[in-house]
Design goal:
It contains 15 helices and 14 strands. With 389 residues, the chain is α/β, with parallel strands linked by helices. It is globular.
């Protein structure tokens, strides 16, 4: 006898397909580079978040091999049992020094870091204030915390100020992406911090797309905006510009120790493989020393804007490696993406519910590993499609 539950799932999947929102996985058969292999076919890819081109760097590969000999593969336990290795400890110390915070703690993923921070630091008598375009992990963490949850229109500081002023909550926490993952724009961090200082609130910055790219030597959004405050709780991921995997949270010692003691997504999971932390120490060296990678990104962003300025589709005003080209409806965005794929170019179509209705887009992601000719190739293909789609 077939379960009604399975039938309900089938209907939901069918409806998603009919709305042009169905998603498929491509199986990569090569390292993450500007040119990738999928099912034996080579594509020019503008869809990774390997912003600095470190994911296949030979020095990181060598560090992984070295780390495996030193620490083995798996951590074998959670951090609070026996899984916290010397490699983890060294990386936490290095990340705190690199970002300019007193202390840092590692998490397995950015999603787990956001869940751990927000649920450990806030509860029923507190209030959370969030930009409406924040990453889903921040929103879901806020709901998990059971705190009052207020959302303000994207970058609308006037609404946020009114919300903060009206709140009688015991503790107030403002949470925001630093670089918004679908629009590529940057949060007004200086203004956010000033509002937090005025209204006795804390500020949590999700710098997943800024770490390694923004700021002096890639130190992230705090460096980029020249802010320093004990009110800031800083989260960044290590699988994007850093080229490896994982995430970390940095802040005041009391904040970090509270996470070690109370963040469930830290306590109740096996520690990430120490070999990855060993490799990330090398990644930090490359991020800090190889300024040409960030300079290359600036050049490629300018090149892309020049290539696409004549299209009837418009780029959003982003100065980061995330360059969204607004198409409009989901079917149209998917059609353009598939037409590019037929030309052996990969650019993902981003559709609702990830982005608001009517704003389906191509999200073009640039890497320091791309060349100016790669960008020109994408420009030529889009100009050809512009006249037909």
């Amino acid at each position: 006898m077939r379960s009604d539950f399975i039938e309900d799932l089938r209907e939901r999947l069918h409806a998603r397909h009919g709305a042009g929102l169905y998603r498929y996985r491509s199986t990569l058969q090569s390292p993450q580079e500007p040119r990738v292999s999928i099912e034996g076919q080579e594509y020019l890819a503008f869809c990774s978040n390997d912003y600095l081109g470190l994911a296949n760097h030979p020095r990181l590969i060598a560090a992984v091999c070295e780390g495996a000999k030193l620490y083995g593969v798996g951590a074998g336990a959670s951090h609070l049992i026996s899984g916290h290795s010397a490699a983890h400890h060294a990386l936490e110390t290095a990340l705190a020094a690199f970002t300019g915070f007193p202390r840092a703690v590692l998490f397995s993923t950015g999603y787990m870091a956001n869940a751990g921070v927000i649920s450990a630091l806030t509860g029923r008598h507190d209030a959370i204030f969030a930009d409406k375009l924040n990453h889903a992990s921040l929103n879901e963490a806020a709901l998990l915390s059971r705190a009052q949850f207020f959302r303000y229109p994207h970058l609308d500081m006037a609404v946020l100020e009114r919300q903060l002023a009206a709140s009688p909550a015991r503790h107030k926490l403002v949470i925001t992406d630093s670089v918004f993952s679908m629009d590529g724009d940057i949060a007004p961090v200086e203004t956010l911090l000033a509002l937090c200082q005025t209204h006795d609130a804390w500020l949590m910055l999700d710098d997943a797309h800024g770490f390694g790219v923004l700021g002096a030597k890639g130190r992230g959004i705090a460096s980029h905006c020249n802010i320093s405050s004990p009110r800031v709780i800083y989260m960044a991921t290590l699988g994007k510009a850093a080229g490896v995997f994982g995430a970390f949270v940095a802040g005041e010692p009391e904040i970090i120790e509270t996470l070690v003691q109370h963040a469930r997504s830290y306590i109740y999971t096996t520690a990430s493989p120490p070999v990855l932390s060993h490799a990330l120490l090398k990644s930090l060296e490359l991020i800090e020393s190889e300024e040409w990678r960030r300079q290359k990104l600036v050049q490629l962003i300018a090149c892309l804007k020049g290539e696409l300025q004549s299209l009837h589709w418009k780029l959003l005003p982003s100065s980061t490696p995330i360059q969204p080209l607004i198409i409009g409806e989901p079917d149209a965005a998917l059609e353009v993406s598939e037409a590019l794929r037929a030309k052996n170019i990969l650019v993902p179509a981003i559709r609702p519910p990830t982005v608001p209705p009517g704003s389906a887009r191509l999200r073009i992601s640039l890497s320091a590993s791309h060349s100016a000719e790669d960008v020109a190739c994408l420009g030529r293909a889009l100009k050809e499609l512009d006249g037909f789609l």
